[in-house]
Amino acid sequence: MAAVFSSDGEAALRRELCTAVAAAPRSDLDGFYEMGRAAAFVRDGGFRKVALQFPDELLADAVQVAGGLEAATGAEMFVLGDTTYGSCCVDEVAAEHVGAEAVLHYGPACLSPCRKLPVLHIFGQQPLDVGRCAEAFRELYPQQQSCVVVLSDVVYAHAMGELEQQLRPEYPNVIFSRLVWGDPPGPAVPGEERKFGRQFLVEAAGGLQDYAMFYVGAEGLALNSFMLTWNRCPFSSFNPSTGCGRRETLNVNRALMRRLYLVERARDASVVGILVGTLGVAGYLSVLQHLRELLARAGKRSYTLAVGKPNPAKLANFPEVDIFVLVACAQNSLLDSSDFYRPVVTPYELELACNPAREWTGNYLTDFRDLLPGACAHVELPPAVPAEEAVPDVSLISGKMRAAHLCDPPSSQLPPSTALACRDQTRALAEISPAASFLESRSWRGLEQQLGQTPVSKAVQGRRGIAIAYEDEGCEQR
Question: What is the value of pTM for the model shown?
Answer without folding.
Answer: 0.76
